[in-house]
Amino acid sequence: MERTFLMVKPDGVQRNLIGEIVSRFEKKGFQLVGAKLMHIPTELAEQHYGEHKERPFFGELVDFITSGPVFAMVWEGENVIATARQMMGSTNPKDAAPGTIRGDFGLTVGKNVIHGSDSPASAAREIGLFFKEDELVEYKKLVNEWIY
Ligand code: RTP
Ligand code: MG
């Protein structure tokens, strides 16, 4: 089953949006397989955003993502990578549609609340950077055996 790496950025954590964001992916029907609140070390931030290292905003991006705790997650489900990106909305919140996470909560491109992997290759790379294999939990939903 497909997996993606999602992360509530420091602005989302400061604004108490962890629950709201987790809830959206839960209600959509995706399954949470790993999560942790953490400070990102500078070296990990530089690796994570390595594709942007020549961009003028790289320094700011690394400073911001290491400025406070983030909530890192792995989610599972069919087409979860592309669907999560749709649920997040455009990178710049001014272009993000209402109903998307960035459209509803984001204010500026630098502080846009959430990160999500943009391809299967990015997802595999980012999950590997942030999680050890034994931090990911596989489980079946048993609820249909428990209720009528
Ligand atoms: P992310 O990687 O954080 O999920 O965001 P994304 O794929 O939608 O956008 P990406 O192009 O990968 O850019 C990564 C982050 O860099 C910041 N950014 N700042 N000042 C600027 O022009 C600018 N452009 C991008 C954003 O915070 C973006 O999320
Ligand atoms: Mg990106």
Automatic annotation (TrEMBL):
Annotated catalysed reactions: a ribonucleoside 5'-diphosphate + ATP = a ribonucleoside 5'-triphosphate + ADP; dZDP + ATP = dZTP + ADP; a 2'-deoxyribonucleoside 5'-diphosphate + ATP = a 2'-deoxyribonucleoside 5'-triphosphate + ADP
Name of the featured protein: Nucleoside diphosphate kinase
InterPro entries per record: NDK-like_dom (IPR034907), NDK-like_dom_sf (IPR036850), Nucleoside_diP_kinase (IPR001564), Nucleoside_diP_kinase_AS (IPR023005)
Nucleoside diphosphate kinase-like domain mapped to chain residues: 1-138
Coiled-coil features, chain-numbered ranges: none
GO MF term list: ATP binding; metal ion binding; nucleoside diphosphate kinase activity
Residues annotated as catalytic: 115 (pros-phosphohistidine intermediate)
Modified residues (Phosphoserine): 122
Keywords: ATP-binding, Cytoplasm, Kinase, Magnesium, Metal-binding, Nucleotide metabolism, Nucleotide-binding, Phosphoprotein, Transferase
Assembly behavior: Homotetramer.
GO cellular component: cytoplasm
Cofactor(s) this protein cannot do without: Mg(2+)
Keyword Transmembrane helix (UniProt): no
GO aspect biological process, one term: CTP biosynthetic process
Enzyme class: transferase
Residue list for modification Phosphothreonine: 91
HAMAP family in alphabetical order: NDP_kinase
Source domain of life: Bacteria
CDD domains from the UniProt entry: NDPk_I (cd04413)
Job description of the protein: Major role in the synthesis of nucleoside triphosphates other than ATP. The ATP gamma phosphate is transferred to the NDP beta phosphate via a ping-pong mechanism, using a phosphorylated active-site intermediate.
Binding site for ATP: 9, 57, 85, 91, 102, 112
Family: Belongs to the NDK family.
